[in-house]
Amino acid sequence: MELEQVTLLSAVILGLMGAGHCIGMCGGIISTLSMATDDKQHKWFKVISYQIGRISSYTTLGLIAGWLGNQSQRVTDFPVLQTISGVLLILMGLYISKAWNAITYLEKVGKLLWNKISPLSKHLLPVKSIKQALFLGALWGWLPCGLVYTSLGYALTLATPINSGLFMLFFGIGTLPATLAAGAASVTLKIWLNKKPVQWASALVLILFGFYILYGLFFADSTMAGHHHHH
């Protein structure tokens, strides 16, 4: 199945919409990398290496999600994964709008795995080399994050490792503007992102996207509709 351009675009938008969340999660480590050296050239090499590592982990998670999605489709015809994806998008939108924090419970589940992985980062701090930055980014990609889980929920529905991996790669690219700017202007950016209109606009896009998926599954799907009308 060829991955549609609109799907990759939605992955980038998903990353962009969660900019405030990204700064909260990764802003600190980006600032640390930025201040780790006075040499501007090496500073940016470290920051870029960290980003490559982080996005590589997202892509790896996407490949795993695609395989799991493919396996689950063989078990049932009911669109379980698509339903989960739509619900997660709505929950993420509600979280960004600060209307409901239910998605944080999902992050708590992810912390069980993170508690096993995070001790490895102690060997990479302080970051003195590009290789350390790369590995630190790869570890940080597994940080419990509702936005990443929301994206993975959608990646699951694509149900092939390549397509799901590509979706997560483009999601990672969508998070770049916020995380790259975090080190240089995190205070200014945080103030702007915390403005109500910005939060509500981002939240609305995610919530509408979630409802669009659910509507397509249960109300607009021709095969399901046909089944009810013709039988």
UniProtKB/TrEMBL annotation:
Annotated Pfam families: DsbD_2
InterPro entries per the UniProt record, alphabetical: UreH-like_TM_dom
Positions of transmembrane segments: 6-35, 47-68, 80-97, 133-156, 168-193, 200-220
Keyword Membrane belongs to the record: yes
Location of the Urease accessory protein UreH-like transmembrane domain: 11-212
Keywords annotated in UniProt: Membrane, Transmembrane, Transmembrane helix
Superkingdom classification of source: Bacteria
Keyword Oxidoreductase: no
PANTHER family linked: HEAVY METAL TRANSPORTER (PTHR42208:SF1), HEAVY METAL TRANSPORTER-RELATED (PTHR42208)
Protein name per Swiss-Prot or TrEMBL: Sulfite exporter TauE/SafE family protein
Source species: Aliikangiella maris
